[in-house]
Design goal:
By secondary structure, the protein is an alpha/beta fold. 43% of the residues lie in helices and 17% in strands.
């Protein structure tokens, strides 16, 4: 009787110049692997006439279901003085992750920080400490290069609160464009016609999407945001987005003496700073300037005038991110194609929107 020699995953990995884990994920249909790597592995598998051992696959699938999942929460490029505070936005995402882990009962999660000048390989090594059951949730402001590297290494990835255009990766985030539309429409419905925006760099994907929504609502109403009514508090460097830069931008704007009727801010943190600068200059919200902001967190309560705001539900983002990653890790086919989960926002009317000035 002829002896059948089976091609191993190790052989495919060696020929394709990838890790054993990457080969396993590709052959199990995991869509988190980048397309070039996936195509290379499948080509090698075909050349070597690879035939899966169905009995071993079934056993491995049952074994995975019994093994605790190891979820690594990685905070990417946080704004140190803002986003890692106990009641801050991203800490609420962590609370949602914790809630999902407790509900599941078979998930271990750990967290770490990553900055662009750090070696991303350390994330891979941390995840591999958990074996095949490990995956990553990137929270904050990751970079496409980091995501691609993790995917090429066979690491399951879910983005929390952001996305990267053109990347085949799962993401859970607020409905930013629709939220921007709601914010602007709320002001338009109350008679405001000159609406401004104080934001940040293009790296803040959520913020740029919210601005897009504002511009869409204004265009529908036959309005256009003036060039001088769109301000960026820190150029294009994310690390420059600090309290001092917002204070200076708003102070300079007030000194110019030509403010819009209403201002939309992408976070309640900014709203608190802007209102403080206004008070120092003898201005009040909403008597001298109405405003709408995003998020519903501790910073809203810290504002001298509680802002009308769009609640973004970060805890739900954390819950859904963990649920999605667990699907990817537990299902033999890798959880299916990557997709985006969008969390709707809710308008909370409060004290910061008054009457538009008489024309």
């Amino acid at each position: 009787m002829a002896t059948i020699t089976r091609v191993t995953l190790k052989e495919i990995a060696s020929r394709a110049d990838v890790s054993h884990t990457t080969v396993s994920r590709v052959l199990n249909g995991n869509q988190s692997i980048s397309r070039p790597t996936r195509d290379r592995v499948l080509t090698v598998a075909k050349e070597l006439d690879y035939r899966p051992n169905r009995r071993s696959q079934t056993h491995a699938t049952h074994k995975m279901a019994d093994r605790p999942l190891r979820v690594q929460l990685v905070f990417c490029q946080l704004l140190w003085r803002v986003e890692d505070s106990p009641a801050g936005y991203f800490m609420q995402i962590v609370q949602g992750c914790n809630q999902a882990a407790q509900t599941d009962g078979n998930i271990e999660y750990h967290w770490s920080y990553w900055q662009p000048d750090e070696d991303p390989q350390k994330i891979v090594e941390t995840v591999r400490a958990g074996g095949r059951s490990g995956g990553v949730i990137l929270i904050g402001h990751s970079r496409p290069s980091l995501v691609r590297m993790l995917q090429d290494e066979g690491v399951a990835v879910v983005l929390a609160d952001h996305e990267h255009a053109g990347l085949d990766v799962d993401a859970v985030l607020p409905d930013n464009v629709a939220g921007g539309v709601q914010a602007a429409q709320h002001l338009i419905d109350r008679g405001f016609r000159r609406i401004g925006w104080l934001g940040g760099p293009d790296e803040m994907v959520n913020w740029t999407q919210r601005l897009l929504g504002v511009q869409v609502a204004m265009a529908r109403a036959g309005l256009t945001m003036r060039e001088d009514d769109r301000r960026n508090s820190c150029g294009q460097d994310l690390r420059g987005l600090l309290t001092e830069s917002i204070e200076k931008t708003m102070g300079d704007w007030l000194s110019e003496g030509d403010m819009p009727e209403a201002l939309i801010l992408p976070s309640t943190w900014q709203a608190a700073i802007v209102q403080r600068v206004m008070l120092e200059r003898g201005r009040r919200c909403p008597d001298d300037l109405s405003m709408v902001s995003f998020d519903n967190d501790l910073y809203a309560a810290m504002c001298s005038t509680r802002p009308t705001r769009l609640a973004t539900f970060p805890e739900q983002i954390g819950v859904r991110a963990v649920e999605r990653l667990s699907q990817i890790l537990r299902r033999e086919e890798g959880g299916g194609p990557a997709y985006k989960t969008v969390i709707p926002m809710k308008l909370i009317e409060d004290q910061s929107v008054g009457q538009p000035p008489k024309r």
